[in-house]
Specification:
Elements lengths: L1 H10 L5 E5 L16 H11 L7 E5 L6 H10 L4 E2 L15 H12 L8 H13 L17 E2 L2 H9 L9 H5 L4 E2 L6 H12 L13 H15 L8 H11 L1 H10 L3
Parallel strand pairs: 1-2, 2-3, 4-5
Helix pairs in contact: 6-8, 8-9, 9-10, 10-11
GO molecular function: 2-isopropylmalate synthase activity
Keywords: Manganese
Organism: Candidatus Gallimonas gallistercoris
Amino acid sequence: ANELMKLSRESGIPVKIRMCDTMCFGVNYPGTSLPRSVQGIVYGLHHHAEVPSELLEWHGHNDFYKVVTNATTAWLYGASSVNCSLLGIGERTGNCPLEAMAMEYAALRGTMDGMDFTAITEIADYFEREINYIVPPKTPFVGRAFNSTRAGIHADGLLKDEEIYNIFDTAKILNRPARVSVNKTSGLAGIAFWINDYYSLPDEYKVTKNDPLVVAMKERVDAEYEEGRNSSFGDDELVNLIYSIDSKRIRDLNAHSMR
């Protein structure tokens, strides 16, 4: 590195150094020795070899679930760049997800600096729709279930105050409102939240968990699970359930919907 920087100064040509952790052996634990210390590698190159931050970039993989942690550590200790891929797609366990580092940047700097994070949702939708890439449903920020709950107690909290059980304003930042999947544990609160969310009802038209429609739907849902059902209800199933209980109510919900 010292010789490369000497050559760079003599030639006037910037030489970028990529710190490759292809097998994800790097760790950020205090006191870790080289060559495994992420901060040690970055600090050594930056301070001892005098490599400018703008010429240091980190390249990591996710074999030990450390790709985001190690990339963030590299940033904090002086690397200006992190190699990323959309949705973390890469060899073996993948590379650092671009969407993850965008979130890390916003968390560290306290600003999105003009980034439109709804593009993260659009990217995931595009990959699934056009490329037939399956995004694992529980993947942070992009999986279809990342901000979805099935537990009735969580749904009840969402009804009272979304901040209780939603990690941030996912509707505003990612265009991904909090969701509830209706199953045997959803309870009245889960069904009420699903109706309000599915129909995008304004506050003055939102249903409560004591609404007769909600009570009737829960009775039907419970009956199916008592008969052996073990899967969650889909949106179309729940719409049909409402129609079978009170067809007029369907018209009212659609009339008040903000979708």
